Amino acid sequence: MKRIDPFILVSISTSLIILAFILLPLAEMIAQPSLEMLAETLADREVVRSIGLSVYASVAAAAISFLLGTPLAYLLARREFRGKKFIESVIDLPIMIPHPVVGIAILSMAGRNHWLGQYLQAAGIRIMGSVTGIIVVLTFVGLPFYINAVKNGIEAIPVRLEKVSRSLGASMGSTFLRVTLPLAWRSMLVGMIMCTARAISEFGAIVIVAYHPMIAPVMIYERFTAYGLKYSQPVAVWLILVCLGLFLLLRLVSLPPRRNP
Q: 36-254 adopts what CATH topology?
């Protein structure tokens, strides 16, 4: 009988512990509400509205990250310059900053005493207590995940492919659209998934910037503090299922196509 290496046994044991640590609380929470309670919760317009707003604002944050973050990710992946490490550190700051601090920082710039806040008010743009404010916060916290994922994806593309395109007379923009983008689109999609996942889970900054309109994490918190687990669990279950379906769909889309033998 072949002897199993002790390292394999340790690896399997720790893996099972981690999976149990993640799955058991979630499985217990999903199993607690009855089907009748889940159906009643889904019929609640406020619940549907809050989950829909969470998904909409998170996807909007991912789209903004794609439009604004892709050029910066390309620059960081392909250029060496002074201050690059500092810029990379600044990009990672939203990951480490406590969530309420993010909300306070955004409100301090959008307030009446700041020139940017005065400009936004003059333009009719409201940050506090608005969907716009929610999207701004979610973009702030999700942007680092997108930029880092795309940066790593572009770094994995051989530079010589871009040099060949440039040597044939193509501009930098044309080279990016015809060479880099088709090769890096999967990393961009993964970055958008990570950005969406981070955004849809945000709570601490949102309750400071925009408690209303209420996204799903805020509604779960409000129902828990007001009514307890019984009324907060069904909303949490539906949010988990919606997120699972969304991310599973995106993962399936990002799978490489099968090659015919």
A: MetI-like fold (1.10.3720)
